[in-house]
Design goal:
Layout: H1 8-45, H2 52-58, E1 64-73, E2 88-107, E3 112-123, E4 135-139, H3 141-149, H4 155-167, E5 173-177, H5 178-184, H6 189-197, E6 225-228, E7 240-243, E8 277-281, E9 286-298, E10 301-307, E11 339-341, E12 351-354, H7 363-367, H8 376-379, E13 382-386, E14 391-405, E15 420-432, H9 435-475, H10 484-490
Antiparallel strand pairs: 1-2, 1-15, 2-3, 3-6, 4-5, 6-7, 8-9, 9-10, 10-13, 11-12, 12-14, 13-14, 14-15
């Protein structure tokens, strides 16, 4: 359309009409876009087919690395010498690429989904310091388990057990390759005998011992999880409701035995950065509370760090609310601060967990052995989560596995040994958000702001039209008038 051909009325209609249109659109966007943007983001974060969150949940889109640090016991022959502490040398890391895949999943009408997770590990030699053939000496877990299970039996029974341990493969310590200690498992004479013996008094539910034996690529090892999908209420996203079909673990008294928290890979958006978060650790059959402490920045995202504290692995010594994590019948035997008993969860083996190198644990554990050097930067357990979207930015899940060495004069192997919590190994499960996923997270964070900025831009543009129209109306310059000398020439 040629504006020179337009009359004053037409020009006014175009200017004020477009100005009014842009103004109305801008105001509507500013008012309604934030809620619409939040709805779009929440839709994308909920677990339902077709969303990015669903695809990322089904198969991990970024690499996960699981690093093992083994403790080599260098002086086991001196264990009965009270002047010499057990000495441990840290070896590793032995790093594995870890993948997760959800399988056998069922979505329910109450906005929950039940599923199994198949986890697989592949050795990464480039990220490791050593090979899986490296030899490590550590306490013999099967012997310690048998002795501990039968500790309160009558003397005559313990004499029989002592004879069995002395003649059927019982040992104080054993030396095996790293690969057998972790996933492969090793053949053990005592284990073979106990499986042949087949008694319910001593339950050894495996044929080869390894810390993660029979776990690689297993579908059912970690159990059946039931979590909220967030489709009815996004604030429930990822919250665990049942484990193996039950809302209690059966290993601890209430409330410690309650199935609670998240599995650590899903968090709801709009997290309160002042609240604790709870994750459920299947290896310990319990939940762990993490406390907010500082921030972490990566790929332009500012995440809140939730860290393990002295309360996380307390058994009631310092924090009474944690006392239910220890057997009330044996409360006097409960470990000190920073160490938790895992017997019930680990087939009655005398296994205890802590943070690496007894970080944040009672100093007596560090002093009892040589080689422990707890450091916050190396041994802190933390999750860094972007709170607006609930997207984990970086994870360092660090836990140490220990075994209690107990003196018992009824067993030749344990006669004269001190009571010491022996560090066996620690692991670090490490995840870092990729730049591609970080860009998506930033878009979700800023989507509302982008819309509001666009709305205000429309309002500003509309204001220019309207102010121009008012100015032209006041100055009566809607139609350009020819100068007088120009009129004379045309006449």
């Amino acid at each position: 359309m040629c504006c020179k051909c337009c009359g004053e009325t037409q020009r006014k209609a175009w200017v004020f009409g477009l100005g009014s249109l842009f103004m109305v659109l801008g105001i509507l966007i500013v008012i309604f876009w934030p809620n619409l943007a939040d709805h779009l983001v929440e839709e994308g974060l909920s677990l339902k087919p077709g969303t990015d969150a669903y695809d990322s949940w089904m198969v991990t889109p970024i690499p996960i690395y699981l690093s093992f640090y083994m403790f080599n016991w260098t002086n086991p022959e001196d264990i009965r010498d009270p002047t010499i502490k057990p000495n441990f040398v840290e070896m590793g890391p032995y790093t594995f690429l870890e993948t997760h895949r959800k399988e056998n999943y069922t979505f329910f009408e109450n906005a929950t989904v039940a599923y199994y997770e198949r986890r697989s590990w592949f050795f990464d030699a480039e990220r490791s310091n050593g090979t899986l053939d490296d030899l490590v000496t550590a306490a013999h877990v099967i012997t310690a388990t048998v002795a501990d299970e039968m500790r309160k039996q009558p003397k005559i029974i313990k004499k029989i057990i002592n004879f069995m341990l002395n003649h059927e493969g019982g040992e104080l310590f054993v030396t095996k390759p790293v690969g057998e200690w972790i996933f492969d498992g090793y053949q053990d004479n005592l284990t073979d005998f106990l499986n042949l013996f087949n008694t319910t008094k001593i339950d050894i539910p495996y044929t080869r011992f390894g810390w993660l034996a029979d776990r690689n690529e297993s579908l059912t090892y970690d159990g059946l999880f039931t979590i909220h999908t967030g489709t009815d209420d996004i604030s429930n996203l990822g919250r665990l409701t049942h484990w193996n079909g039950k809302n209690e673990t059966g290993f601890y008294e209430r409330p410690c035995g309650t199935v609670n928290g998240t599995t650590g890979d899903l968090f709801p958006p709009k997290m309160n950065v002042n609240d604790e978060i709870t994750i459920f650790a299947t290896d310990a059959c319990r939940f762990m509370n993490l406390r907010p402490q500082g921030t972490y920045e990566s790929h332009g995202l500012t995440a809140t760090k939730w860290v393990g504290t002295d309360e996380t692995l307390d058994s009631g010594e310092t924090y009474p609310n944690q006392a239910c994590f220890c057997d009330p019948v044996r409360f006097d035997e409960c470990p000190k601060r920073g160490v938790v008993e895992c017997k019930a969860c680990r087939d009655q083996a005398p296994i205890y967990s802590s943070f690496p190198h007894f970080y944040l644990a009672d100093q007596s554990y560090v002093d009892a052995v040589e080689g422990m050097k707890p450091e916050k930067d190396k041994h802190e357990f933390f999750l860094a989560v972007e709170p607006t979207t609930g997207v984990p930015v970086q994870v360092h899940g660090r836990i140490q596995i220990n075994m209690m060495l107990e003196p018992d004069d009824d067993y030749d192997i344990y006669r004269g040994v001190p009571q010491i919590l022996m560090p066996m190994f620690w692991f670090d499960q490490y995840v870092e958000l990729s730049s591609e996923l970080a860009s998506k997270a930033k878009l979700a964070i800023n989507l509302s702001s982008y819309g509001v900025i666009f709305g205000y831009s429309l309002i500003a543009f509309a204001s220019i039209f309207i102010v121009t129209g008012i100015t032209l109306t006041v100055t009566k310059k809607w139609v350009r008038r020819a100068p007088e000398d120009e009129d004379m020439l045309t006449n």
